[in-house]
Design goal:
The complex is a heterotetramer, with one copy of chain A (752 residues), two copies of chain B (109 residues) and one copy of chain C (225 residues). With 752 residues, chain A is an alpha+beta fold. Chain A is built from 26 helices and 28 strands. In chain B, strands 2-1-3-4 form a four-stranded antiparallel sheet. The structure holds adenosine-5'-diphosphate and magnesium ion (MG).
Chain lengths: 752, 109, 225, 109
């Protein structure tokens, strides 16, 4: 194998006119020109590799940045926020000296190409983000969207994605405590796999990614570096190598959860011993990202000997090593006196660790290959000074027609028999049916602190065994609502997630979001994105819950057809004592069933319009965040003061869906008496917001209703927990056995 | 009836955590000098029909669409005679190519 | 003096902290044991916890079996020290041939996590004396490779000598032969089971507190011994 | 350096859920006439030393104590030459016997 000369800095200076494959690497002409301007010469191959990955949409947020700014600008005052947007994950104070960090991230495209590994490495990536903050990961959630349930490709994608999330999370020993499963033809070819991880630490243990202190060692540890995910860099490699080089690079990454488990334990042990000055996980853009971000967030420069990086494939070129996205790696900055001890901790956990460089006095990031300098850049220009676009956006021309296509005219069930049939059809449809076929593949018990998990409204994890302090989490998003109105859709996603957390009895504190949209180069998709950002930022301000971090996934489209705009919102709440948490199940006959909130005829984007008519049109339900806040206060007080035995929010599928779930979960039926004059169809199927069902013990009825009256929240007694049927008096009745087999049977029939 | 063996191995460039775990364990068990381990799958099939080209290509198709995941694995198919000797097998290059062929594009079946 | 129960941590062990919590809740002193150390730190009994030791690569428990701590565990187990293997720990015990049989992939090939009803078939082992024979309990089950297999002769022998300790009720979750969820050795000091009693020790976090009895059983046995 | 292949298959009398699942799935994918499927493992090792009897027996020992579980699995070891042709392999009977030999009796190392 003969090599053309290494493209060193000196060589680049001597050969300013050499052509470079910047377009193939995804750079625009002006971006390439800007790189040349920054460097005052042409970039070396290695520099071009670094800039091209770090300036990509995925790493630089170049299309989304201008809109995401609102999350900071409009952020509500929050005493709970210890670390805000911008770090690897935000950190929230949950009291008693504990801090919690949480973040959601997408792995959509890789999960379509190779469902198992794509989803597995998605979990791996978000968990490393949390570990890099110094926190011990304590739980995961997964928000999933697939094409039509009956589509043959969904049978390829869904089982693989679920097995991958379970395979990785279970092996790491992280309980899965919640998530979402949604089917819609718009996600055919573009499934959404969003994974959330939450971690816990003491305030004093918060660590930020920076490389301060000249002479400090840069240590790469974890898996060896292979040719994963470097399709782009191979273009460069083929320029500097003969064509007989084995240039086949893997198109997918394979995860090794066992390696990651060791990485977690060894990282946390190093933190606990005070061995770490700065740390960064290696995710997208691998070493390019880790070195340039660590260096630019610190005070000095950095020098790296790239040929010391342990390789899985010895044929990798320096460009490829810089771009490799091999999983299960981290990069730490360690004082020289502590380096030996750091390496010993790695050895204890059988983790490969190598000193690859050190922090320098200067302000340059210099990378060497067998003694020759191949990178010499200002790391800030790589990590933070990427291009920023003000992409044009425009409300799509079809939006008015879509909104005008109201569900008002759709035929509705009227008689008891018709309502019964519609009810069964709705609750057994793939989007409403039980997800236990999925969630039974996830360990929800490991670590022994899971207080609530799916199918509850939110997952609840105990943080402190003695005091009972705990956190609650839920993720929600409704692409159908957002398609009808992306601004309101984002607000609705927050409202629902907030409501789910409050239903467990937790006080909502902070937000993470994953924004899944189509191509930013399409003004319509860009408008949806801009509207959703505006809506979420406004709603967060109104509810007093700041966005602490998140993720943007663009280009989710097949040809011209984009997915529904799908903002997924995760809310974190706190419970001072998890023994007070509220479950959703009706567990005691005799409990009184109350409906909180007001019901209007709101069917735009509803589950009923989808299931019964395959219809999407009109306007989504109205959002009233003041009402959401009041409802949450009542749910939290009800839990704290022992006034409610069960609570379950109302969302997709309305009152009917909620009652079915609470009955099945608790193993008891209910006799429901619809209020005089109420239209049964509207009451059962409408998706009006700001509502919940609670089960109140008789002894607490007066206290509870007085509280609602005093605070001005409508509360209607609609029935009592009793028997083995869900009975709507004078209308129809559903035996629990029949309901259970309808609701439990759907997913196994499709995927079992 | 014909006996057919399908061997499925992780592609060389793909991480093989299982093989690595085995390799790392061996020295601790007192076995030195094992420089590399890769772990794959082996299927033994009993198939209707004679040990001929047609049977081979039927099983190759099964391997390509189902037994192996072309995104991360290569496969070889071997048709055996009654005595267990190999009479026909996948052209290794074609096998690899077939494996690679469905990468990224494979959609519905 | 409190009774010391060692809980081994292998690389990839996950339920080790839970097992230690269960020991403490039962009134014992939990002693962490590290896979690389031969020392059992004066433990009176040992728990091999659940998890994915060494990623469960090759076969579950196959690599962990060769760790230094296991040679001590084997030695003491043969002399009568109580040893409990839960899930991955059960797999390690089978791989070590302290218990007969082996655990293979679930017949449906999926990981399964559910609340599992069990019948206690033998309340005379070191780990089950606080149960009644025939008692029905519910504890979490969660595994990928929980199918218990052995040849027919071994299975018959296990049945005849009362060495099946726990049996699945309400449907076999993984294809285990004869619905076997847990077995013991001839002496009754070594018990292995797939379900997770350590996840059923607190009202707040478990489906029941049925699992606690395994840990109280061994503590009583050790105190009276 | 020698390339050695170790094939590990479930014993015929032991349930093979993975093989069965494959067999059940094949007709649904349109493949008829597959009467039996068994799924096992295949290891490819790169071992120090020449392709001789000694290397074979070293790897046989590894297979017996570690790569296969004699309670449920049989194994075969094949030593290959540089061209990939088999030069030596476990006597299948001895291999099976060795596999069976550690069932239930072998203890700590
Ligand atoms: N992929 C999944 N992973 C984990 N939990 C899930 C998943 N899909 C659904 N769930 C859980 O199932 C339950 C019902 O889901 P959903 O109807 O979306 O709840 P809600 O309407 O309250 O948001 C919730 O507890 C949710 O967390
Ligand atoms: Mg809910």
């Amino acid at each position: 194998m003969t090599r053309t000369p290494l493209d060193t800095v000196a060589h680049a200076e001597r050969t300013p006119e050499d052509g470079q494959p910047w377009a193939e690497l995804g750079l625009k002409e002006d971006e390439y020109a800007r790189i040349r301007e920054i460097l005052g010469r042409r970039p070396t191959g290695a520099e071009l590799a670094m800039y091209s990955v770090m300036w990509s949409e995925h790493c630089s947020y170049k299309s989304s940045k201008v809109h995401l700014r609102q999350f900071g600008e409009k952020a509500p005052e929050s005493e709970a926020l210890l670390v805000g947007i911008g770090e690897q994950a935000g950190v929230v104070d949950v009291g008693q000296g504990y801090a919690v960090t949480f973040k959601i991230e997408s792995h959509n495209h890789p999960s379509y190409v190779e469902p198992y590994q794509g989803a597995a490495t998605g979990v791996g990536g978000i968990v490393r983000d949390i570990v890099a903050m110094g926190a011990r990961p304590v739980a995961v959630l997964d928000a999933l969207r697939f094409g039509a349930a009956e589509h043959p490709d969904t049978r390829r994608v869904l089982p693989g994605v679920v097995a991958g999330i379970g395979g990785y999370g279970n092996c790491l020993g992280l309980p899965n405590i919640g998530g979402e499963t949604v089917f819609d033809p718009c996600y055919q070819g573009n499934p959404l796999v969003n994974a959330l991880c939450v971690g816990v630490m003491r305030h004093e243990d918060i660590h930020l990614a920076k490389a301060a202190g000249a002479g400090n060692k840069v240590i790469l540890y974890g898996a060896r570096t292979g040719g994963d995910g470097i399709g782009g860099a191979s273009i460069l490699a083929s320029e500097s190598f003969d064509s007989d080089k084995p240039s086949k690079r893997p198109s997918v990454q394979v995860g090794d959860p066992f390696q990651e488990k060791l990485l977690i334990e060894c990282t946390l042990e190093a933190f606990a011993e005070g061995l770490v000055s700065g740390i960064q996980d290696l995710g997208a853009a691998g070493l390019s990202c880790a070195t340039s971000e660590l260096a630019s967030n610190g005070s000095g420069g950095m020098r790296v000997e790239l040929d010391t990086v342990p390789l899985r494939d010895s044929s990798l070129s320096p460009e490829e090593i810089l771009m490799s996205e091999s999983q299960e790696r981290m990069c730490a900055v360690v004082e020289p006196a502590k380096a030996e001890r750091f390496l010993a901790v790695c050895e204890k956990w059988d983790v490969t660790a190598t000193v690859i460089g050190e922090v320098t006095d200067g302000d340059r990031l210099e990378i060497y290959w067998h003694g020759e300098r191949i990178v010499d850049v200002d790391p800030r220009t790589v990590a933070h000074e990427g291009p920023v676009y003000e992409r044009p956006y425009a409300r799509p021309t079809w939006q008015d027609a879509l909104r005008a296509d109201s569900p008002e005219t759709l035929p509705r069930p009227r008689t008891g028999d018709e309502l019964r049939a519609a009810a069964l059809e709705l609750v057994s449809a793939p989007n409403q049916a039980s997800t236990s076929w999925i969630t039974d593949q996830y360990d929800r018990y490991v670590l022994g602190n899971t207080v609530l998990a799916q199918p509850e409204d939110g997952g609840v994890i105990r943080v402190d065994e003695r005091s009972g302090l705990g956190v609650a989490l839920a993720t929600d998003g409704n692409g159908r609502y957002a398609k009808l109105d992306p601004y309101e859709g984002a607000r609705l996603a927050l409202a629902e997630s907030y409501r789910n957390v409050a239903a467990t009895g937790a006080r909502p504190l902070a937000v993470t979001d994953c924004l899944n949209f189509g191509s930013p180069e399409d003004p319509a998709a860009m408008w949806q994105f801009a509207e959703a950002c505006r809506g979420l930022a406004d709603a967060c301000r109104e509810l007093g819950t700041p966005v602490t971090g998140g993720n943007v996934s663009l280009y989710n489209q097949t040809g011209e057809t984009a997915i529904h705009p799908t903002p997924v919102v995760g809310v974190l709440g706190v419970l001072d004592d998890v023994s007070r948490r509220t479950p959703i199940g009706f567990t005691e006959p005799g409990q009184l069933v109350y409906l909180l909130g007001e019901t209007r005829a709101e069917f735009g984007g509803s589950a009923w319009s989808q299931v019964a008519h395959g219809h999407l049109g009109g306007t989504p339900p109205a959002v009233d965040l003041e009402r959401e806040r009041l409802l949450a206060e009542i749910l939290i007080a009800g839990s704290r003061d022992g006034m409610v035995d069960a609570a379950h929010d109302l969302s997709e599928g309305g009152l009917l869906q909620t009652l079915v779930e609470s009955c099945l979960r608790g193993g008891n039926g209910a006799r429901i008496v619809l209020p005089d004059g109420a239209d049964p169809f509207t009451l059962l199927f409408s998706e009006s917001q700001g509502r919940a069902v609670v089960a109140v013990p008789r002894s607490e009825e007066v206290r509870f209703t007085e509280m609602c009256a005093a605070r001005g929240l409508p509360a209607a007694r609609i029935g009592v927990v009793d028997g083995q049927e869900l009975d709507f008096q004078g209308q129809f009745s559903l035996p629990l056995d029949e309901l259970r087999s309808a609701v439990e049977g759907t997913l196994p029939a499709l995927f079992g | 009836m014909t006996r057919v063996v399908v061997e499925v191995m992780p592609k060389p460039e793909i991480l093989d955590p299982q093989g690595q775990a085995v390799q790392r364990a061996l020295p601790r068990l007192g076995y030195q000098g094992v420089l590399d381990v890769r772990q794959g799958k082996r299927f033994e099939l009993e198939v209707d029909g004679p040990p001929n080209r047609e049977t081979l290509s039927r099983v190759e198709e099964m391997a390509e669409t189902f037994l192996a995941n072309g995104v991360i694995e290569n496969f070889t198919v071997r048709v055996l005679d009654a005595a267990g000797a190999e009479v026909l097998s996948t052209d290794p290059v074609a096998g690899a190519a077939a494996g690679a062929g469905n990468s990224g594009t494979e959609g519905a079946r | 003096m409190t009774t010391r129960i060692g809980v081994v941590t292998f690389p990839g062990s996950l339920d080790d902290a839970d097992a230690r919590r269960a020991v403490s809740l039962a009134g014992g002193e939990a002693v962490p044991l590290w896979h690389r150390d031969k020392s059992l730190r004066q433990a009176d009994a040992v728990v091999l916890p659940g998890g994915f030791s060494y990623g469960d690569y090759l076969r579950c428990g196959a690599i962990a079996r060769f760790s230094p701590v296991m040679s001590s565990v084997l030695e003491h187990a043969r002399e009568g020290m109580p040893v409990l293997g839960i899930c991955n720990g059960f797999q390690v015990l089978c791989e070590s041939h302290l218990l007969p049989g082996a655990l293979i992939r679930n017949d449906h090939l999926r990981f399964v996590c559910r609340d599992q009803r069990l019948r206690v078939e033998n309340a005379a082992t070191d780990w089950t004396a606080d149960f009644r024979t025939g008692q029905e309990i519910t504890v979490p089950l969660k595994n990928n490779d929980g199918g218990y297999v052995a040849d027919e002769r071994t299975l018959d022998e296990l049945e005849e000598t009362g060495r099946v300790v726990f049996r699945y009720l309400d449907g076999n979750p993984n294809g285990s032969r004869r619905d076997i969820a847990g077995v013991t050795n001839e002496a009754g000091n070594v018990v292995g089971l797939m379900p997770h009693p350590e996840h059923a020790v607190e009202e707040l976090t478990g489906p029941t507190t049925d699992g606690l009895s395994l840990f109280t059983s061994v503590l009583k046995k050790l105190v009276t011994a």
